Amino acid sequence: DEPRALPRDLEGLRVVVSAGGTREPLDPVRYLGNRSSGKQGFALARVAAQRGADVTLIAAHTVDLPSPAGAKVERVSSAEELRKAVQAAAVDADVVVMAAAVADFRPASRATSKIKKSDDQPDPVITLDRNADILAELVQDRRAGQVIVGFAAETGDEHGSVLDHARAKLRRKGADLLVVNAVGDGKAFGTEDNSGWLLAADGTEQAIPLGAKARLAATLWDAVTGLRQRRLQ
Ligand code: CTP
Ligand code: CA
């Protein structure tokens, strides 16, 4: 069906969205990566641009997706490249949304030539170093009034439910909003639909019913404008 005309309620808002999965090189031909499709981040950028925002999309690796109309797209690969691009774009942004799946670790060393197998050498062991937490750094260097949004894909475990983990993550990260997707059993990764919760730093929690990623994007932009309006009052 025909999409309805969207309100131009984000006119003048400068937003940065990161999307997709980073790749951490092992050697010239191999990398450690993840299953992020980038679809949710691209939907966020597309909907924001449709609503009039000035959008910069920092895109790591994604499935084949059309560039969101009206957004400025910058391509990156590793977590460190994503970090530099997001930091540079965040300097004059009103809103930063970290929808990218950023590798927590990278191989401690990157071989300059292809790693070979050998019958007289032991098999290699990959040592990992921790990557910087881009979201936590954004919160630390936050410019006045900037809204910072994180995403979390969680599973429940013996330490708590999806929501328990998400509430703790929101507190730990210090973001204003956290979108939580329950993952596992084929949920979220690469699919067209998403569901979850939207948690705000003020303690409000909103369930996001299963729906198109553009629908979740609209819900998030509504929450961001609501937050900004409350701050102005
Ligand atoms: N994130 C980031 N930099 C990293 C890792 C994550 O900016 N090095 C951001 C993600 O883009 C996301 C949020 O932090 O918006 C939460 O990511 P997640 O992987 O769920 O959180 P972690 O703190 O890495 O915790 P976990 O150990 O559960 O992976
Ligand atoms: Ca992580």
Automatic annotation (TrEMBL):
Positions spanned in the full protein: 179 to 411 of 412
EC number(s) stated in the UniProt entry for this protein: 4.1.1.36, 6.3.2.5
Role this protein plays: Catalyzes two steps in the biosynthesis of coenzyme A. In the first step cysteine is conjugated to 4'-phosphopantothenate to form 4-phosphopantothenoylcysteine, in the latter compound is decarboxylated to form 4'-phosphopantotheine. Catalyzes two sequential steps in the biosynthesis of coenzyme A. In the first step cysteine is conjugated to 4'-phosphopantothenate to form 4-phosphopantothenoylcysteine. In the second step the latter compound is decarboxylated to form 4'-phosphopantotheine.
GO annotation, cellular component aspect: phosphopantothenoylcysteine decarboxylase complex
Phosphopantothenate--cysteine ligase: annotated span: 15-233
Organism lineage: Bacteria, Bacillati, Actinomycetota, Actinomycetes, Pseudonocardiales
Cofactor remark from the record: Binds 1 FMN per subunit.
Protein name as annotated: Coenzyme A biosynthesis bifunctional protein CoaBC
Molecular-function GO term, any one: phosphopantothenoylcysteine decarboxylase activity
Biological source species: Amycolatopsis saalfeldensis
Keyword vocabulary terms for this entry: Decarboxylase, Flavoprotein, FMN, Ligase, Lyase, Magnesium, Metal-binding, Multifunctional enzyme
